[in-house]
């Protein structure tokens, strides 16, 4: 007896990961490549784009060495056009660009607020507006955060931007259906090269997080990849407008 089902894989798909040269975005780019996808990992840094592209090729993916700035629609269009030209199309887009400013609600400046929301929220809008018209039966995956739904001190702009990302994800899912599915991932506390010192074992912050998290630890960035592969794959063909939380149970634990 056999049972037909759609496998969870991105093999043979063509993906663009904006913000894909560091942190969670880079892990997703590498994960897609290891699954058999061709992947363009892009950011503002040509050096990081080139380094990430080398690893993607080592993993067997075709790629394009191209930078972008999510505050500049022309640069996003350049990424889209080169991907379509060199890879033949775009099936998956991940918006993983990030910006953060640590200040209280009372103290955050207009400049810092505008910078964070321009990159983290308006950037998601620009990515969607740029790539969705070029996709056929495609999948967009936005990277949100627990900060969208939990109160975190000194992160008002970041929290507001991520809350907006989740609301925008639902709005875009409705408007772009049935051709393009739009979902989001809300990671919990994830160790990346950028925050390794902050979440290092033995620090007070790490101890507080581990104590509250039912799984008892923070995540490695590779642990976010599975959710991204699922949402980008044809196995999620009936999933749109959803936010998948990957936090070790942190949000469910009151104490």
TrEMBL record:
Annotated Gene3D superfamilies: NAD(P)-binding Rossmann-like Domain
Top-level division of the source organism's lineage: Archaea
Ketoreductase domain residues: 13-188
Alphabetized InterPro entries for the sequence: KR_dom (IPR057326), NAD(P)-bd_dom_sf (IPR036291), Sc_DH/Rdtase_CS (IPR020904), SDR_fam (IPR002347)
Gene Ontology BP annotations: fatty acid elongation
MF term (GO), any: oxidoreductase activity, acting on the CH-OH group of donors, NAD or NADP as acceptor
Protein family (similarity comment): Belongs to the short-chain dehydrogenases/reductases (SDR) family.
Name by which UniProt lists this protein: NAD(P)-dependent dehydrogenase, short-chain alcohol dehydrogenase family
């Amino acid at each position: 007896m056999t049972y037909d089902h759609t496998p969870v894989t991105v093999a043979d798909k063509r993906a663009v990961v904006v913000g894909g040269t560091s942190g969670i975005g880079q892990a997703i780019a590498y994960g897609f490549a290891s699954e058999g996808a061709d992947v363009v990992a892009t950011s503002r840094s040509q050096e990081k784009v080139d380094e990430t592209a080398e690893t993607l090729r080592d993993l067997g993916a075709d790629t394009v060495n191209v930078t972008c700035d999510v505050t500049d629609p022309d640069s996003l269009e350049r990424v889209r056009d080169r991907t379509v030209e060199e890879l033949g199309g775009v099936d998956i887009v991940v918006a993983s660009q990030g910006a953060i400013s640590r200040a209280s609600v009372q103290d955050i400046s207009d400049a810092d607020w505008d910078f964070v929301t321009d990159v983290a929220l308006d950037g998601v809008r620009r990515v969607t507006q740029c790539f969705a018209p070029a996709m056929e039966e495609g999948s967009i995956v936005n990277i949100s955060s627990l900060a969208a739904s939990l109160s975190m001190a000194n992160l008002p702009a970041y929290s507001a931007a991520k809350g907006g990302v989740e609301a925008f994800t639902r709005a875009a899912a409705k408007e772009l259906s049935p051709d393009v599915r739009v979902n989001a991932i809300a990671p919990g506390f994830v160790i990346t090269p950028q925050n390794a010192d902050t979440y290092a074992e033995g620090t007070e912050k790490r101890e507080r997080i581990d104590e509250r998290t039912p799984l008892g630890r923070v995540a490695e960035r590779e642990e976010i990849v599975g959710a991204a592969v699922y949402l980008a794959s044809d196995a999620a063909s009936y999933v749109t407008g959803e936010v998948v939380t990957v936090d070790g149970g942190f949000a469910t634990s009151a104490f």
